[in-house]
Amino acid sequence: MTFKICAIGELIVEFLAKEQNQRFDQTGKFIGPFPGGSPAVFADQVAKLGFSVIFFSCVGKDLFGRMCINRLKKDGVIIDGITSHSKANTGSAFVSYKNSSERDFIFNIPNSACGLLSFNHINENLLQDCNHLHVMGSSLYSFRAIDAMRKALDIIKSKGGTISFDPNLRKEMFDIQEMEQSFDYIMEYTDIFLPSENEVSYFAHSIGESEQQTMQTLLKKGIKHIVVKKGANGASYYGLNEQNKFTMIHVDGLKMHSVDPTGAGDCFDATFVSLMLAGYPVKDALIYANASGALAVSKKGSMEGASTLIELEKVLSRSACHI
Amino acid sequence: MTFKICAIGELIVEFLAKEQNQRFDQTGKFIGPFPGGSPAVFADQVAKLGFSVIFFSCVGKDLFGRMCINRLKKDGVIIDGITSHSKANTGSAFVSYKNSSERDFIFNIPNSACGLLSFNHINENLLQDCNHLHVMGSSLYSFRAIDAMRKALDIIKSKGGTISFDPNLRKEMFDIQEMEQSFDYIMEYTDIFLPSENEVSYFAHSIGESEQQTMQTLLKKGIKHIVVKKGANGASYYGLNEQNKFTMIHVDGLKMHSVDPTGAGDCFDATFVSLMLAGYPVKDALIYANASGALAVSKKGSMEGASTLIELEKVLSRSACHI
Fold it and tell me: CA-nearest residue of chain A to B112?
């Protein structure tokens, strides 16, 4: 089964605070730039698995931007949809970890080159053979970016393509009203939904309902596959089987030394979506995606943790999760 | 003699590459955030000398911005002219040194909160008792910023105040056309002109003319005091004495271990301008300014090297340059 995935959104450089609990208002050590941005990490992971993926974004005409583009190109991402602007800088993010899962960010995205991404950048010719669009909630950072995303969504849906959606909510971005408003729209078209555990309540229909209840309602509304990502606790799949019966599959997390969890969800998404499109059984896609997320946390830099299929198989063969 | 200085422009955080020749397109170590921005360092140095200074700028509503404001406030700068914006991030600069004098920058200024600084931010009431404006060329980064600067210039000039101007040219900013165009305008009103040695040729009237020739022409055009800053080689003053005769004074550089030259010119400017306004003889102002620039290079972070009068006197008493 041949397929080509499209991803759109922020391509940025990341700087990681060296110490835990390092403050942004005190001088300290940072390591960077690392190429990053959730949809960019997603695209990189798809390409590293050997599948076809095109990425749309904007960077500044500076060395940070050049680094990002070169990296995606080297890993096999189709970069024809990336524009270099001289009027704005490459976006950036500063990350500081409080503990192995909590982190603080300072994002510079809507006012960076990323913020210039617009409807006109989505070149229909480049989407000709695309049959899947992955949407990161974090990429819906402005009306302009949402407009670009809708254009790609309309083109791909009109050709019978599918959509995956990771809400990727970040408290630092929540003052961007447009983002929240566009979620309902995207959800209507979503085939594969990939929230994190702590995002589930945001999509609940009543207070106090269980994860399973929330997922059942979403499946009834038309979403075909849902995976709730639970970090070190693995992931839970929800779907309807061939008899239209509710199915749930859970995989436990692989034990990994967590160095930098940023990007783990993006790698998980990329592996699950790619393998589903490639025709893998749901359970196998879930197991590989789980391994992909686990490997991603073991390296500093959100894109550094993207893995090849062989690397995923090696990890799985060492663990109890034999395919 | 009481006076109050006004400075306007970029208030940003700086990140310094740890290694010499560190590349911006490779992952490495950075130290930061340091509060910075040329006019901000200028204002901080004026305040540390114990003189009155108000600073106008915009930062983001983020921890980087808070750090910058807190620092200026702690050092005695009047911060009522600084606005915190929620719609943009605090500006930033990444600095990498090639050797002790050459450096590469990646600036994020016009698209940061700094870029929102406009005419309306220059509150006339806050300028009531100001009688001097210092203009940094680097702060003329957009039509909006130039507009703000002109408003302050008009207000201060109309009250009989004076203007100092440091072109502060940076190759990374030279694609901002507005900046160059506004230089002629500012020069017309300049009383104290503070170029660096390598900027002199930019203000020459014919190819190959000497520094002295350039300065004589500028003095004839109405500039009253010129200091050419020469880094480790000290500084040269050009002016007209009471008999309207051309005068030149040179001071040699003080020997200092250079750790981070960014900000040295700003501290030099601040000390020279403050002491001239305070009624010091030209030669003394020059000697103190020279010491101020020398002390500034000995500390990492452009604002970290600002000195008190006592610190300057200590350095001068240790050197041959007795007042």
Answer: A111
pLDDT value, residue A161 = 97
Distance CA A65, CA A114 (A): 11
Give the position of tokens 């199915």: A247
Let me know if residue A323 belongs to a domain: no
Mean pLDDT for each consecutive 10-residue tract of chain A (323 residues)?
Answer: 93 96 96 97 98 98 97 98 94 90 88 94 95 96 92 96 93 68 91 96 89 95 97 95 91 89 95 98 97 93 95 88 51
CA A5 to chain B, closest CA, distance in angstroms equals 27
CA distance A277 to B29: 40
- Cα Rg, chain A, nearest whole Å: 18
**A177, A48 contact by CB (below 8 A):** no
Pick from A34, A66, A106: CB nearest B64:
A106
pTM beyond 0.80: yes
Total structural domains within chain B: 1
Nearest Cβ partner for B31 among A27, A87, A106: A27
CATH number of the domain that A269 lies in?
3.40.1190.20
| Helices A38-48 and A63-75, packing angle to 10 deg | 30
Q: Which domain holds residue B223?
A: 4-318
Residue B43 lies in a domain: yes
